# Entry
Amino acid sequence: MSQPAWTHGVRIAGTGSCLPSRTLTNADFEKLVDTTDEWIFQRTGIRQRQVCNPETEGCFTLSRDALSRALEMAGMKGSDLDLVIVATVSGEMPCPSTACRVAAAIGATPAPAFDLQAACSGFVYAVNVAEALIRSGRFRSVGVVGCDIMSSIVDYTDRTVSILFGDAAGSVVLVRDDNPARGCLYQAMGADGSGWNALYLPKRMQEVPPDDVNNPIRLGYLRMNGKEVFRFAVTKFREVIEDALRNTGLTPETVSQVVCHQSNIRIIDAAREKIGIPAEKVYVNIDRCGNSSSGSVGLCFDELNRAGKIKSGDAVVLVAFGGGLTWASSVWRI
Ligand code: UT7
# Structure
């Protein structure tokens, strides 16, 4: 892909994440619905997930804390940011955005702040938008958060959906860098709204598609056609990673890490094995944290970074797919 001659690059100055306080194990689910630890682990790779105490935790607090930790690592203050983006589909309120409250809480006011919605692809979408805004020269430092409180939107009587999800926030602080070779080498984002009904959250019966109306529906909770999403994910995930490698000239040998949305271990392993990327280059925490939608990629990135596994000069691929349907990749030279 031909790139303009950049005058500056983009650096990840800090990363942060936040997991809520409560642990929900597969054994806990055995008490809630007709399921077993064995079924959940074999089909998804999940053993447990963290969920919020709704009295004290939520999208606002997790997003705020993840971004505060990223700022602390960067040695920056909230007032150093000139934009805050929160990717989420589960903010406490549609208005104001979670980003506005987070920006105020960390002292970033009057920096602009907005939420971005792309379901599980949200964090990678937000990183791509932020990186492009810094490359353009209009912004110098952007706080990006991906956060979802899936426990607030899943129906805990529906075993086909609830067992998959957990809550989490992940964050990066992106800043302008003098080295133009540093930053996002390639990004791809896509959406296919014709597949919207594979993963949707209906508020009115009018929106429930004909093939779902006869099922037990609880308005306000996530509906998922697991098989449909699985089929889409297995193909798309592989295509998106292959596209990212092809367009950057990277190979399974030269790529340092693929940080991917934690959807289901079978989806991750299928793509990884087909492309031939060694297991140690694809970080997995789904066993501990489940699928946290917009939270997962930022959370994984922060855990890797804090473990010393993201180094200057590394080539790192972020990749996600999810409701919309949406998908995104972001290839970084760290
Ligand atoms: O972040 C993006 C969003 N989502 C995803 O990436 C999810 C993608 N999909 C999946 O991960 C998988 O489709 C699931 C894990 C959700 C389900 O696994 P599956 O292998 O596709 O199971 P299935 O839907 O084909 O169900 C097989 C059986 C069914 O019973 P019958 O019809 O064969 O008698 C289900 O009713 O398993 C039953 N089942 C369960 N049994 C025990 C469904 N959920 C459960 C459960 N425990 N929790």
